[in-house]
Amino acid sequence: MKNIIGFAKKHYSTIMVVLLFLVTALLVLYSLPREGKFRYEFQRGRPWMHETLIAPFNFPIYKTEAELNAERDSALAGFRHYFRHDSLVYDSIVSLYSDNLSSDIENFMSRNVEFFGEQAEPAGNRREEFINITNQFAGFSREVLRDVYSMGIIEPGETADRIAAANEPIVIVRNNIGERTPADGYFRQKGAYEFFTESIEDWAGRNLTGQPGIYVEFFNMLDVSRYIHPNLTYDQVMTERVRQSLLEEISFARGMVQAGERIVSRGDLITGDVFRILESLRREYETKFSGANINLVFLGQFILVFSLLTVLYLFLYNFRREILNDVRKSLFILLLFLLMVVISMMIIRYSPVNFYIVPFAIVPIIIRTFYDERLALFVHTIILLLVGFFAPNSFEFIFLNFIAGIVAIFSLTNLYRRSKLFLTAVIIFLTYSALYFGIAVIQERSIASIDYMNFAWFGGNGLLVLITYPLLYIFEKSFGFISDATLMELSDTNQPLLRKLAEEAPGTFQHSIQVANLAEAAIFEIGGNPLLVRTGALYHDIGKMADPAYFIENQTTGYNPHDSLDFEESAQKIISHVAKGVEMARRHNLPEQVIDFIRTHHGTTRVQYFYRSYLKEYPDDEVDLQKYTYPGPKPFSRETAVLMMADSVEAASRSLKKTDVDSINNLVESIINSQVNEEQFTDTDITFKDITTTKEIYKKKLRNIYHVRVEYPE
């Protein structure tokens, strides 16, 4: 267990970076579409630009959505809603009606005993006549109720009300047998009530003419509304079942293409029929390989993603290992990769917008800003290879975006100028447009056939590239990077810290400016970031502000505080300006990349003046070298190495008594050679050729500073 923990601690960065690569792979895999991909692109009315296409398997020729909708409308034209007839409702209503009618007759005669006579007395003519008429009415009204309930009364409800209001025919199911019924073959409740009352009024008009008014009074008091109840219930289950059955009878295909059958040859015009067959093949292909073979699709995608991320890892391992050694830097690269792939997949799967609006050039621009062209181009290529597998017109997509990415990378210099990014966006738009025009002319052989709407999408792409500027700020602050724009701000001598340096240590300030000029010129020649080295040079000696009088360039009155110190104390005073500079830089929130110049500009060299003075004064004593040696670290980049040389050369040149060509040349050679011999540049990637070039630049610059002319032989 201890061994495992020890191994994990020792290789923490490597383990974390590998985990980041694995997590990225999983997230990318999750975002990829699982549907099969039809690898051919085509458009109606244009020539087929691929090889002859042979049907790989049997597949149907699908009808268009318009055709299917027309057939659905036709199939449902005679469709009717289903209602179930409940015969028990009539039986219960008739029984209730008969009982209530008999009771109503008895009660009515009891209330009108003066007219009908006492019940105990023998029935008179009036009583018998009234009973006879009511019996006739009872028989008639029951027949009317039977007719009403036989036709059916629809139960109120949203669907039923809509059907009845539209006077739609329906199907009434009686004893599991459906009967198509016209709109006038059933009742709504109101209609049934009106029909019943009108029938009663009609009967009364025919049978009560000339009868006593008390008869009419009896029929007017009858409440027939309570005998009207729905007996037709909407059967939604049956209705949907029949509807679905009708729709299922519609065929989605209008024919079949057999395996091995030729579909289209290169150069053939894609007419309506061919287009329909190709669309059917695309649809069948994508559905055929999205079901049972989903695991195989996932396996293929896994191999693709794993291979590309492995290639990216190997590239970083061989050429930018410092990124793999830093979890933060690795996360930055993988996050850009992941975001661009996921956004692309979302647009491919869900968005209706043209895929050409996706600004793939943003990734190489951002990486180029913080790293170099080679890394930017490589990551850009890996993204295009992965996305291109799923993008429409894969070759055209990769070609256009690859060239646009290259143009973006190499057109982007001096990003600290906002106009430069705008110019790059315009160049990207022109690149897309020119390349697309060329491809379209080759394929279509006609300008008239070009889809000019794509130029609008290219314009949108160029505009979206402009969001790179705020993105750079976000990534810079989130990942601790430093951009040219930030360096430009920091190198402004009106910055508060530099103004303070100019006021409190003017000699050091002038020295820093000269060092910045020397180092910047060297980096321009041997390669690197000139803005970074210039900014680092301006701030490398800010620690001297803590005790400016202890540094000779600030001693203007002839007073030297070192006269009251011993050699070790003086050396420590000089050495302390590095630590004080780092502390001051952190207090003013300078970026770590600038602080690195403060920490490394003396490396692990010694304070030679006081060290040699001590040896001269005390030749027999043992020297504590640590007291006279800077703590380091050594320079670890071209920029920090060049600054170290420039700092030492510029400072030493001020002590030259004779500033001729030989003196300057010898000074530069001796100082830089001494640094090389002390192995101050072993942690950098600077070469001997770079060092030689740097020497020559410093010699030339110093000669210009001291106005030295080369003497030519007579």
Question: What are the key terms here?
Answer:
714 residues, mainly alpha, Hypothetical protein af1432, four-stranded mixed β-sheet, two-stranded antiparallel ribbon, 30 helices, 8 strands
Q: pLDDT below 50 for ≥5 consecutive residues: which ranges?
A: 119-123
The strands making up the biggest β-sheet line up spatially as: 5-4-3-6
Helicity, as a percent range: 55-70%
Tell me the strand percentage band.
Answer: under 5%
| Largest sheet features | 4 strands, mixed
- Outline: elongated
Helix/strand-derived category reads mainly alpha
Find the count of extended strands (DSSP E, 2+ residues): 8
In short:
This protein has about 725 residues and is mainly α. The chain contains 30 helices and 8 strands. The strands form 3 sheets. The protein has a 4-stranded mixed sheet. A two-stranded antiparallel ribbon has the order 1-8. A two-stranded antiparallel sheet has the order 2-7.
Question: Can you tell me about this structure?
Answer:
The chain is mainly alpha-helical and 714 residues long. Among the domains are: 2-36 and 298-479, no CATH class; 485-705, Hypothetical protein af1432. It is 63% helix and 4% strand. It has 30 helices and eight strands. The chain has helices at 2-10, 12-31, 65-75, 87-111, 113-116, 125-151, 158-165, 189-207, 213-220, 236-248, 272-288, 294-319, 321-324, 327-350, 362-370, 373-388, 394-411, 418-444, 453-465, 468-479, 484-490, 496-504, 506-526, 530-539, 567-587, 592-600, 608-617, 638-653, 661-677, 688-705, and strands spanning 53-54, 59-62, 81-85, 170-174, 177-181, 232-234, 253-257, 262-264. The strands form three sheets. Strands 5-4-3-6 form a four-stranded mixed sheet. It has a two-stranded antiparallel sheet with strand order 1-8. Strand 4 (170-174) and strand 5 (177-181) form a beta hairpin. It is elongated and about 165 Å long. The two termini are 81 Å apart. 28% of the residues are buried.
